[in-house]
Design a protein that fits this description.
The protein is mainly α. The protein contains four helices and no strands. The chain has helices at about 1-15, 20-40, 50-65, 75. Helix 2 crosses helix 3 (about 50-65). The longest helix has 20 residues, at about 20-40. The protein starts with a helix and ends in a 5-residue tail after the last helix.
């Protein structure tokens, strides 16, 4: 029953959103997930959080392929980050 509702909801969202809106929504979800993951202490070598704004900037830059970072990626982030 739940699977049928979820499937119906996905179809409804896809039908109500234009392709541009759907792409924007997917990118926003990926940025939010990346922000959350980069904000965890396991993402850095020092096991400290880099802060919400810094994580948001880094995640957005990574998704948009600009490559801008506030920190040196090789020395700040762990393999997870």
């Amino acid at each position: 029953m739940e699977l049928a509702i979820l499937s119906f909801t996905k179809k409804r969202i896809r039908n109500e959103l234009s392709p541009t809106q759907y792409l924007s929504l997917v990118l926003l979800i990926i940025i939010i997930m990346g922000t959350f993951l980069l904000n965890t202490p396991i993402a850095t070598v020092s096991n400290e959080s880099i802060g919400g704004i810094n994580a948001l900037f880094t995640a957005t830059s990574a998704v948009c392929i600009t490559g801008l970072t506030i920190f040196d990626t090789a020395t700040t982030f762990s393999l997870f980050g």
